[in-house]
Amino acid sequence: MGKRTGTGKITYPDGSKYDGGFKNNLKEGAGIFTFKDGSSYTGNWKNDLKDGRGAFKWADGSKFHGNFENGESKDGILTMKDGTQRNIN
Q: How does residue 2 score in pLDDT terms, banded at 50, 70 and 90?
């Protein structure tokens, strides 16, 4: 079986889902990953890691919009479920 490259969808055994770009079986480019608890990340991927502009939304409604690097949030705005906001740098 070949390596997944291009765009597509996958559902993982734990129920989480990914819809977006792949390169050599890794998440690459724009995509949406939805975790089994309802949390999600929408944004750019590089080598299977969150990288570039993106937004993470927790199941409780809290959100982070900003930049990611090597899978980690770097800088942006964190909005809590009650609407309060914090700049993260």
A: confident
Three-state SS at 78:
strand
Question: What is the domain-level CATH number for residue 16?
Answer: 2.20.110.10
What does the pLDDT read at residue 3?
86
Domain that holds residue 65: 6-88
Does residue 1 lie within any of the structural domains? Answer: no
The residue assigned the tokens 């770009």 is 21
pLDDT at 1 over 70: no
CA distance linking residue 57 with residue 42, whole number of Å: 8
Answer yes or no: is 52 within a domain. yes
Query: Which residue spans within 1-89 are E strands per DSSP?
Result: 6-11, 17-23, 26-34, 40-46, 49-57, 63-69, 72-79, 85-88
